[in-house]
Design goal:
There is one protein chain. The chain is of the alpha+beta class. The chain has 2 domains: 87 residues; 77 residues, CRO Repressor, CATH 3.30.240.20. Helices cover 48% and strands 15% of the residues. The strands form 2 sheets. Strands 4-3-5-6 form a 4-stranded antiparallel sheet. Strands 1-2 form a two-stranded antiparallel ribbon. The longest helix has 25 residues. 17% of the residues are buried. InterPro entries: DUF421 (IPR007353), YetF_N (IPR048454). Pfam families: DUF421, YetF_N.
C-alpha cells in the first residue's frame, strides 16, 4: 500500500503518483553524485584559478559548456560513473590551462585560435557591412546602447563585438580609433570608416 499518493486529472484521465513507487536508491545516487561533483568542480576551479570561469573568449565558452554537460551527465546518467565524469572534467580543465598558457606565452599562436574584436559602431554610425558579417542586427545594438545608459547612438564613440560575444560600448569623445592603445587589436574596415558621415555628439 502506498505511503502517500498524489492524484491529478489531465485531459479527462486520472494520473496517480505514489511516493513509495520512487526508486530511492537511484535518488540517493543522484544526490550523492551531485554533491561529490559539485565539490570536485569547486576544487578544480580553485586550483585552475579565476581564468577557469572567466569566459574571456569563445574557447573558454566551449570549455564551460562542455564541462557543464559532463557534470550533468555524471549526475544523471547511469552509464557514466562519477569517476569518469571527474576524469573528463579534469582533462578539459587541464586543456584550458595549457592552451591559455600557450596563448599568453606565444600571442601569435593565440591569434590563430582566438577571434578578433570587431568594430560595429563608429562615432554613432552603424557599420552595416561589419554588422552583416557578424550577423548583428541594429535592434541588438540599440538594446546594448540602452543597457549602457545611452539613448542616442551618436553618444557612442564605438561599439565593439568582443571575442566572448559581448558588446562593449565606449562613450563619445574626440579621440581617433587609431590613437587608442586598447583598441589596437580591433578589426575594422578603414575604407568604411573613412566614408562615415559623423554626426554631432548630443549635448
Amino acid at each position: 500500500m502506498a505511503l502517500c499518493s498524489i492524484t491529478t486529472h489531465l485531459s479527462g484521465s486520472s494520473i496517480s503518483f505514489a511516493i513509495s513507487d520512487l526508486n530511492w536508491d537511484r535518488l540517493t545516487d543522484v544526490a550523492v553524485g551531485g554533491i561529490v561533483l559539485f565539490i570536485f568542480v569547486v576544487v578544480m576551479v580553485r586550483v585552475l584559478g579565476k581564468r577557469a570561469t572567466a569566459q574571456m573568449n569563445n574557447f573558454d565558452w566551449i570549455i564551460a559548456v562542455a564541462t557543464g554537460g559532463i557534470l550533468a551527465s555524471g549526475i544523471l546518467l547511469r552509464d557514466i560513473s562519477i569517476i569518469e565524469a571527474m576524469v573528463a572534467m579534469a582533462v578539459l580543465g587541464a586543456c584550458q590551462f595549457v592552451v591559455t598558457k600557450i596563448f599568453v606565452l606565444y600571442p601569435k599562436i593565440g591569434s590563430i585560435f582566438k577571434a578578433d574584436p570587431t568594430l560595429l559602431v563608429h562615432k554613432g554610425v552603424f557599420l552595416r557591412d561589419a554588422m552583416k558579417r557578424e550577423r548583428i542586427s541594429e535592434e541588438e545594438l540599440q538594446s546594448r546602447l540602452r543597457f549602457a545608459g545611452l539613448t542616442d547612438p551618436a553618444a557612442a564613440n564605438w561599439v565593439i563585438l568582443e571575442p566572448d560575444g559581448k558588446l562593449s560600448v565606449i562613450p563619445r569623445d574626440d579621440s581617433a580609433i587609431t590613437e587608442v592603445e586598447c583598441l589596437a587589436d580591433v578589426e575594422f574596415d578603414r575604407e568604411e570608416i573613412e566614408k562615415v558621415d559623423v554626426p554631432d555628439a548630443p549635448q
